[in-house]
Write the structure tokens for this entry.
Amino acid sequence: MLQVEALTKVFGDFTALDGVSFSVAEGEIVGLLGENGAGKTTTLRILAGALYPTSGWVRIGGCDLLSNHLAAKRKVGYLPERLPLDDAMRVRPYLDYVARLRGLDSDERADSIDRVLDACHLRDIAERGIGVLSRGMRMRVALAQALVHNPELLLLDEPTAGLDPEQVINMRELIRSLAGHHTILFSSHNLNEVSECCSRVVLLRGGQVVAEDSVSVLTGLDGREETVFLRLTRPPDDLHDALLALEGVVGVEPGPPELGTVVVRTVVTPGIRERLVAEVVSRGWGLCEVRQVSDTLEDVFHRHAAGNGE
Amino acid sequence: MTGATLGMLRREMGRMLSGSGMILALPVGMAWMAWQRYYSSGDLGAADTLDGVFRAAGVVLGVLAVWLASPSLSAERAEGTASLWATSPVRPSQVVTGKLLAVLLFLLGAALLLLAPPLWHISLAEPLTWGRLLSGMLGLFLLSLLAASVTLLASALVRHFSTAFCWGLAALVVWIWGDQVLVRVTGILSSLTPASWGVISPEMGTSAGWGGKDLLLPMFVGWVDAGAVCIMLVAAATLLLVAHQVVASERWRS
């Protein structure tokens, strides 16, 4: 559905994107993750046709974005971080205006507007002014404008930014409900959101893709590694070296000595946790707590952001 | 006309009709028209009175054109709604055309409102000739087109509509009253600079022939010069072309 190859964008002497390549299959929900300035918004703006790349190419549903940008734009719906709403208009006329911009004829417009009003739960406020709506409702209207021409590819830039917790939950449900009907690429700072909604993540740092994989692989849930948390009442002085010497242990991060906590990363092999516990008990370190900790996407993000990811 | 242009036009018309400025501008314009008709023209005949009506309508419509066109592009950019066009299958020419047509359509309505009462009153005293009416209307159209074009360009270049309004108004003033402005400016400058410099003299700017007014006024008295019409159309087209190029630029979108 979406192919991005060697995408580069230079603003003056600043390189915002440097050879970004990734692809998104039809029906996938992919998260674009990165720190501020990593290039997420620039990537989405290029894909939406608002910016031209310095080099590289983008193909959307078989259309080259640069050589056939009008046809490619018809396949894309874009929700920018700054909502493109006209506060002076009411919801339905605004959607009608956007539908005209997207090239829908009069027969299609009425049906399309009704469809997105229902999909985004806006039917009750269709005749209200946009300027008086809450932030959550405004976000829904902005999402509706991105959907009004039934695009194959939906680009969402920070779709839950500024929403309260309940609105965030509703928006996530809304995004998930769109899966299957649209291919979705969205950026977010909210790592929970990405892990909840996305089947795959593209991790950006300094304008480059540093990782691209499924959420389960990036979080270590595919079985390559696992993290075990231990609390000891009598931790030895050489705790770090002693644990690291054990077979299957690949990393040790001791907490403050007075707490006696330690996080151990191990390869996943049968019985590794039993062996670890047996070793700690046999050495008389006073084991009082042991639990498995799954890597969150945030851990992965920080590992890659620090430049020591795999 | 494409659906996108029509959509743009409809939205602009809605915005203009809901603008509080119009509620004030039309009565003020009509009051001025009445003043021109009943007090300023004295006991002149219908032909001379018509000249005054067109002159007054030209000023009202020119200012109205600047007022309407000033937020057209700048406000969209400031509010972030310009990203809708940038990411839609819409050409910059459709955007500029839609905005311009909306302003001209609104001005047509305003012109009918402004001109109908005095023209009806004048026609009671003396029959009006179509040639005189049409040449006057052509002059008003060209003045409105130029005012709207220069303000659209200003609106594309700046981020705040008040700045675009000031630019557009300044251009209109220079166009209509440029000779008087120049006389006053050179008069002030010549009084401030030593005569021995010989750079600026009070006589500068007093020579007849400031383009804008001289091109327009003959039309208000029934004389249409094809050259003058061409000059104004080319000027408007050039301004709109530059506005189109500004809107099409990546810097404007970002």
In short: Chain B has one domain: 3-253. Chain B touches chain A at residues 3-4, 6-8, 10-11, 14-15, 18, 79-91, 250, 253-254 (CB under 8 Å).
